[in-house]
């Protein structure tokens, strides 16, 4: 019999391998994508999600039983899972998808289906009661996976979180308060466990993985699934086709004007007014 969610909480943290944010992006010669033969790292918003899960466990040691990092992609995706383990996750799940089987980027709908199936698998051992994930990936900027996953699970969602507060014990049905960043400032929502939360930049500052923890991460449990294991053979097939990718136009140099009249004249010439 699997453990229930009473007085204990298993946290699932999806992470994604993306091109490192410091790398200059270059368009491929075929104009259908960008050069991926560059340094990759964990998506920065996912680092924040891992950090928040680890901080929760440090604060509620008796309540949080396990932090599980999960990712889908080719063999190299294991690198970011090892990083999550070094940051403090307890185990990892890699849904391995061969490069040549994608036919294009793995889209949010496919990722959501994969995560739903992974949670179902994980629940056979120990019930997942909270999903913390980055609000978006810096490569596609879709910001859709968390919302889709919540809908598929039938769970509440709290997106763009900059603060998380538990209003009682960490157990099923307990209320939580999430402060969200919105256009006009901050918004506060209340929901109940289990739920899906997506993280914003100001939620925390992720820690660096220390060398001892990097070494310990090599011994932590690491499961691998294929799409066939999850019954999702078609989940990686793209629904969208990239027609063309172009670099943004180079910014032109500015110019000084001597008067307001000259400024207005130049704006008219440029068709701005």
From TrEMBL:
A single Gene Ontology molecular function, please?
electron transfer activity
Q: Which SMART domains match?
A: ETF (SM00893)
User: Where is it found, in Gene Ontology cellular component terms?
Assistant: mitochondrial matrix
Q: Which Pfam families match?
A: ETF
Q: How is the cofactor bound?
A: Binds 1 AMP per subunit.
UniProt xrefs under SUPFAM superfamilies:
Adenine nucleotide alpha hydrolases-like
Q: Which CDD domains match?
A: ETF_beta
Q: Classify the main location.
A: mitochondrion
State its cofactor. AMP; FAD
The protein's superkingdom reads Eukaryota
One GO biological process term is:
amino acid catabolic process
> Which of UniProt's keywords are assigned here?
Electron transport, Mitochondrion, Transport
Q: Which residues form the Electron transfer flavoprotein alpha/beta-subunit N-terminal domain?
A: 30-234
Q: Where in the cell is it found?
A: Mitochondrion matrix
- Function description: The electron transfer flavoprotein serves as a specific electron acceptor for several dehydrogenases, including five acyl-CoA dehydrogenases, glutaryl-CoA and sarcosine dehydrogenase. It transfers the electrons to the main mitochondrial respiratory chain via ETF-ubiquinone oxidoreductase (ETF dehydrogenase).
Which family is this protein grouped under?
Answer: Belongs to the ETF beta-subunit/FixA family.
**Description of how the protein assembles with itself and partners:** Heterodimer of an alpha and a beta subunit.
* Protein name in the entry: Probable electron transfer flavoprotein subunit beta
Naturally occurring in which organism (per UniProt): Acaromyces ingoldii
